[in-house]
Amino acid sequence: MKKATAFISTLLLSTTPVWAFTLNDAWQAAREHSSELKQAHYQFQAYEQQKPIARAALLPQVSVSASHQRQNQFEPRKITQDSSSWKVSASQTIFNLSKWRKYQQSKTIVDAAGKQLDLAEQQLLLKVAEAYFNVLVAKESLTTVQKSKEAFAAQQTQAEALFKKGLSTIVDVQEAQAGYESALADEIEITSQLVQAYAQLQTYTGLNPEQIELIKVHDVSQFPNQTSEQWLEQADAHNAEIRLQRLVAQSSEQEMKATKANRYPTVEMSAGYYTNPNDYQSTDTVQDYETRANYIGIGISMPLFTGGQLRAQSKQANASYHAAEQELQMTQEKVALSVKENFAKVRAGKIRIQALDKLVQTNQTKVQSSKLGNQYGFLSNADRVRSEKEYYEAELKRTQAKYQYLMAQLSLMQLAGMFDTNLIIK
């Protein structure tokens, strides 16, 4: 018993918090601290470059080149020749439907990357909220269990004293001891859960989880009162994952069009200027000359036969587009199911909390009655232990129900695209 108590004390050893942070503080800290979100930001920055890369293929391309060469000949006669050249060339795409389709696709890719970043942030903030609530559930549950353990310890001491005087049976002592051992086992388990919840919250936010602020009223103040159908419509229009998947399907369609456009002719204009000075020396001749020229022209190109490559690429792009459409359908179905589940949890959660409030009050009255009944010999110590157990079990259920209700509210708002870190949870 002493070892178990020492173990729990070691797990919970900490300094007294001097500052308490709210859930909104945790969200803000997670935005700045999370490596997962930083990675998502860098991925977005990488995808942002798709647009200028695709646009560059439609803009003029200008290049300059230069070279110099010396050639020494020894047989049959000695000749030395120096030749140099430099060239400036420019080209401009006049018509290339595939490149234009790629440019249009790049805009969609950037939009999709933005939605992916939004989704990553929302998922992170939901994880932070869950970790925050897990800490509070564990802390409140631990307080309840410790009070119960103290009550069982007092009952055990009293039962042992009465047993020595011959006023109670050994069964009463054993019942009180069983209650204490059960509460001690629960305390060890909940303490372990609290330590894990601390570690999880600190990983997400970088904050000291021991400085967490308690929640007094378990409700989201801006939670809208809507029907299930309204929530489903809101989710279909604004859910981040659905909007992302719509853009992915749109990008796949544009990729399919760009691939089919490879069959069309391309037109390109080119222009340039070059000079080529030469120095020729032999045993009997010295000659210097320079060539200068400029050019301008238009080229037309169209594939006639590629060994089936274009046909295969078109089929591949077409299949990818239909796969993306089915993925969108699957995402819509998954989100709709989650909306229905969380809507049911929210509706049932509030009623369940009210029922558990009444159950806790009833069990508290039963504990007081059992104490009096045991004192005057109407009830056994086993009845008193049972009423204590029922009371603290109801307290634990109520604690879990309060935070499950809060989590269901936040999840439903996130699914409907209404999640915001400015949400007020009292």
At a glance:
The protein is α+β, with helices and mostly antiparallel strands and about 425 residues long.
Per-chain topology:
Layout: H1 2-11, H2 23-33, H3 35-48, H4 50-56, E1 61-73, E2 79-95, H5 97-164, H6 170-205, H7 228-238, H8 240-260, E3 266-282, E4 286-301, H9 309-375, H10 381-415
Antiparallel strand pairs: 1-2, 2-3, 3-4
Global morphology? elongated
- Compressed to H and E, one letter per element, the order equals HHHHEEHHHHEEHH
Major sheet strand order: 1-2-3-4
Computed Rg = 38 Å
Structural class: alpha+beta
Low-confidence stretches: 6-17
Structural commentary:
This protein has 426 residues and is α+β, with helices and mostly antiparallel strands. Helix content is 66%, strand content 15%. It contains ten helices and four strands; from the N terminus they run H-H-H-H-E-E-H-H-H-H-E-E-H-H. Strands 1-2-3-4 form a four-stranded antiparallel sheet, with no helix packed on it. Helix 4 packs antiparallel against helix 5 (97-164) and helix 9 (309-375) packs antiparallel against helix 10. The longest helix is centred in the first third of the chain and has 68 residues, at 97-164. The radius of gyration is 38 Å and the shape is elongated. The two termini are 39 Å apart. 29% of the residues are buried. The model is unreliable at 6-17 (pLDDT under 50).
